[in-house]
Amino acid sequence: TVDVGAPQLSMHSIREMTSTQALEHYLVFFQGFYKNFKQVHNSIEH
């Protein structure tokens, strides 16, 4: 498994752990991942 996403601690503000630029990186990553999901899925050894 792969754990992806912005780190977040319950006792701290999300602003302490991530930045607005990180959110843009996640958006681009997930858009590309789901746009190419079939190819990604087929490349994984089952």
From TrEMBL:
One of its GO terms (biological process) is proteolysis. This is aspartyl aminopeptidase. Its EC number is 3.4.11.21. It is an enzyme of class 3 (hydrolase). InterPro entries: Peptidase_M18 (IPR001948). It catalyses: Release of an N-terminal aspartate or glutamate from a peptide, with a preference for aspartate. It comes from Adineta steineri. Coiled coil: none annotated. GO terms for molecular function: aminopeptidase activity; zinc ion binding.
